[in-house]
Amino acid sequence: MGGEEGGDGLKLIGQYGSAFVTRVKLALSLKGLSYEYVEEDLRNKSALLLSSNPVHKAVPVLIHRGKPICESQVIVQYIDEAFAGIGPPLLPADPYERSVARFWAAFIEDKLVSPWDRVFRAKTEDEREEAMKQMLAAVDALEGALKEGRPRPFFGGDSVGYVDVVLGGAVSYAKGHDALFGSELIDAAKTPLLAAWMERFCELDAAKAVLQDVDRVVQYGKMLIAKNAAATRQA
């Protein structure tokens, strides 16, 4: 991968369809860091992945100077701290503002990403509908977060920050949500600020460089749904 700054021996183990991996790619892209990307086959996990993340055996894993860092939010924070002074800061300098950013990142993980995963893995339509309700409630809360205080283009303020990166990793899936499930997740009529944020985020050069193709994500999502449905029928 290209970048304006030396990555100091950075290697990213990832998988194309993972929104968590995309988060890390976004952070590296925003910082202008060069890195080696290793695409992982999660059906046949490599020795590198298993030795780098023996606890979860999952992507993403960032290897810096031979040392692995795991879990996407931890990795994004590590990139911001390890490469302070290179590219824009992602977490605010003010301790209170930093705590607010971490709060919303945790909210996204717990209230949006977790039920989103259940939507793909639901065994019944009732389960899927309940998870959808939780997702839409989370989207409404994020719309409210953008309304707080003065109008601003990003969760990070005038420039992209940590929360933008955490949420931004999933925008290709958000754009493909209608094709996958027959409804808009981020609806401009219901959540105009969040919809405008998504379009603005997608226009960033750093985002254009790494965000997944929406059509390809839709095909990947359909494959996951079919695979989980087949596993449910066999159970």
UniProtKB/TrEMBL annotation:
**Pfam families per the UniProt record, alphabetical:** GST_C_2, GST_N
BP term (GO), one: glutathione metabolic process
- What keywords are annotated for this sequence in UniProt? Cytoplasm, Transferase
Q: Does the keyword Nucleotidyltransferase apply?
A: no
Localization (cell): Cytoplasm, Cytosol
Question: Which InterPro entries does UniProt cross-reference here?
Answer: Glutathione-S-Trfase_C-like, Glutathione-S-Trfase_C_sf, Glutathione_S-Trfase, Glutathione_S-Trfase_N, GST_C_Tau, Omega/Tau-like, Thioredoxin-like_sf
CDD domains assigned: GST_C_Tau, GST_N_Tau
Q: GO CC: one term?
A: cytoplasm
Gene3D superfamilies given in the database record: 1.20.1050.10, Glutaredoxin
Q: Does the keyword Nucleotide-binding apply?
A: no
Name the source's superkingdom: Eukaryota
- Residues covered by the GST C-terminal domain: 94-224
Catalytic reaction(s) noted = RX + glutathione = an S-substituted glutathione + a halide anion + H(+)
Q: What is its EC number?
A: 2.5.1.18
The residue ranges of the GST N-terminal domain are: 8-87
User: Which Gene Ontology molecular function entries are recorded, alphabetically?
Assistant: glutathione transferase activity
PROSITE patterns reported for this sequence: GST_CTER, GST_NTER
Its annotated function is as follows:
Is involved in the conjugation of reduced glutathione to a wide number of exogenous and endogenous hydrophobic electrophiles.
Q: Which family does it belong to?
A: Belongs to the GST superfamily. Tau family.
| Protein name per the record | Glutathione S-transferase
